[in-house]
Design brief:
InterPro entries: ArsR-like_HTH, AsnC-type_HTH_dom, Dimeric_a/b-barrel, Tscrpt_reg_AsnC-like, Tscrpt_reg_AsnC/Lrp_C, Tscrpt_reg_HTH_AsnC-type_CS, WH-like_DNA-bd_sf, WH_DNA-bd_sf. One of its GO terms (cellular component) is cytosol. Keywords: DNA-binding, Transcription, Transcription regulation. This protein has 146 residues and is α+β, with helices and mostly antiparallel strands. It has 2 domains: 42 residues, Winged helix-like DNA-binding domain superfamily/Winged helix DNA-binding domain (Arc Repressor Mutant, subunit A); 82 residues, 2-Layer Sandwich (Alpha-Beta Plaits). 39% of the residues lie in helices and 21% in strands. The chain has a 4-stranded antiparallel β-sheet. Helix 1 packs across helix 2 and helix 2 packs across helix 3. The longest helix is centred in the N-terminal third of the chain and has 13 residues. The chain starts with a helix and ends in a 9-residue tail after the last strand. The mean pLDDT is 95.
Length: 146
């Protein structure tokens, strides 16, 4: 990957809806070579996809909670079941398995505190071997995830 590839990536990170003509203009290439570079970056897995960034309030999911979750066992069956269960929950927008304590970081987006309590009670706390859940409520988002 060279400086031109990095420039293309930077522009697409800012605006994934750029036309090839506009992208080429911004990075100083003609359209053919620009398109071939983008296609190569996609084929190589550098560009993994494109997505729309949705306003959480517009879809009733503006209440975000960060959870630290510890399990009482870290065997493959326990962790696998936990991961599969939460991956299927639409409220979960991010799930990370961590080294050390806690075992998992979970980012949840719901409508309000009542919806969060229902999610926690009906989804998280029903998973076998959940030892501890600590909920962190965001006061203010300084730099949102991309």
């Amino acid at each position: 990957m060279d400086a031109m590839d990095r420039a293309i990536i930077a522009e697409l990170e800012r605006d994934g809806r750029l036309t090839n003509v506009e992208l080429a203009r911004r990075v100083g290439l003609t359209t053919g070579p620009c398109l071939r570079r983008v296609q190569r970056l996609e084929a190589d897995g550098v560009i993994c996809g494109y997505r729309a960034v949705i306003d959480p309030a517009a879809v009733g999911r503006s209440f975000e909670v960060l959870l630290d979750v510890s399990l009482d066992s870290q065997d493959a069956e326990t962790t696998g079941h936990f991961e599969r269960t939460l991956t299927q929950a639409e409220e979960v927008v991010e799930l990370r398995r961590l080294f050390s304590t806690p075992d998992f970081f979970v980012r949840v987006a719901v409508a309000d505190l009542t919806a969060y309590e229902a999610f926690l009670s009906q989804h998280v706390m029903t998973i076998p071997r959940v030892k501890n859940v600590t909920s962190h409520f965001t006061m203010k988002t300084i730099k949102p995830a991309p």
